[in-house]
Amino acid sequence: MTMIATASGFEFIRTVLTADTGVGGFMTLVTGLFRDMAPAKQSSPWAIMQAQSAPQHVTTMDAYRVMSDGLFYVKVVGKAETDYANMIAAMKRVDTLLKRTSGNVSDGKVLMCVGEGEISYSEDVDGIIFSHLGEIYRLLLQ
Amino acid sequence: MAVTENHLGEIADSFDDLFDDVLDKLAFDAEAGYKTQIQANGQVDTRNMLESAFAVTPKSSSWESGPDREDPPVAQPRTAYAGISASYAWYQNYGTSRIPARPFFEPVNEKIAREADKVLELMRKGLMRFES
């Protein structure tokens, strides 16, 4: 089966996270989930998913693709002063939903999704401190 | 009467040298990789971030001071560091609220990790041949 591993990775993350709509669910804690960057004027906190290292194919000696191995991150971005508690709650939901998971996507499978490390930094935007809090996940896709 | 011929110390020392050579190569390959990726991503303006890519190994260091740069890691035995010391590299690598991420760190680290696996496998095979 042919698959574009990057697109499949995004599909997996989006499907899992956007389904979490119950009380205290991920989608109730952020204003949206976006690939690469949020639209201008998006109200905070929002979530970003990004392919941080493009999936590399693992092949057999005769070039049969066994799986693809890539790094993706999910982070929540918000105002440090007012959004941080929600951001922590949102990232806890992300970790619960994605760590050590697997699942199907439309043109294949995610064999494994594991957290590899956290991202945490801040920036000053016109005098307002925005925090970025996230996790890098390794996805094995087939 | 006994004669002692014990060269284990010399052998161990030669392994230390070998490991240091391997670490040196991997770290400086990483530094070169960061520079290549930063240029490929079009992230060169003042060249400060590009030139802040560094490697610190038991044998040498390429860290240089410059504007907005973090201090270098302290060299340790059997340890090599590679990175970008410009303090704003985070924003370029992971994005901000206004600019998307343009990663240069993880893509190179992944490549170096694969290279390290290959080197370690070659060393392991060499040791197995030595044993037999």
Concise overview:
The complex is a heterodimer of chains A (142) and B (132). With 142 residues, chain A is α+β, with helices and mostly antiparallel strands.
Summarize the structure in words.
The complex is a heterodimer of chains A (142) and B (132). Chain A has a six-stranded mixed beta sheet with strand order 1-2-3-6-5-4. Chain A has 142 residues and is α+β, with helices and mostly antiparallel strands. Helices cover 26% and strands 49% of the residues of chain A. Chain A has helices at residues 5-18, 26-29, 80-98, and strands at 33-35, 46-59, 65-79, 101-105, 108-125, 128-141. Chain A is built from three helices and six strands. The model of chain A has no long low-confidence stretch (mean pLDDT 95). Chain B has 132 residues and is mainly alpha-helical. The chains are: A alpha+beta (142), B mainly alpha (132). The A-B interface holds A 36-38, 48, 50, 52-54, 56, 71, 73, 75, 77, 119, 121, 123, 125, 130, 132, 134, 136 and B 90-91, 94-101, 103, 106-107, 109-110, 114.
Q: Report strand order across the widest sheet of chain A.
A: 1-2-3-6-5-4
How many beta-strand elements of chain B? Answer: 2
The secondary structure category of chain A is alpha+beta
Helix and strand pattern of chain A: HHEEEHEEE
How many runs of DSSP E, i.e. beta strands of chain A?
A: 6
The outline of chain B comes out as: elongated
SSE order of chain B:
HHEEHH
Largest sheet of chain B: 2 strands, antiparallel
* Biggest β-sheet description of chain A: 6 strands, mixed
* Biggest contact: A-B, 21 and 16 residues
Total count of helical runs of at least 4 residues of chain A = 3
* Structure annotation, total helices of chain B: 4
Shape label of chain A: elongated
Classify the helix fraction of chain A into a percent range: 25-40%
Q: How far is it from the N-terminal to the C-terminal residue of chain A, by CA?
A: 9 Å
Assembly state of the chains shown = heterodimer
Helical/strand content category of chain B: mainly alpha
Residue stretches of chain A low in confidence (pLDDT < 50, at least 5 long) are none
Model regions low in confidence, pLDDT < 50 over at least 5 residues of chain B: none
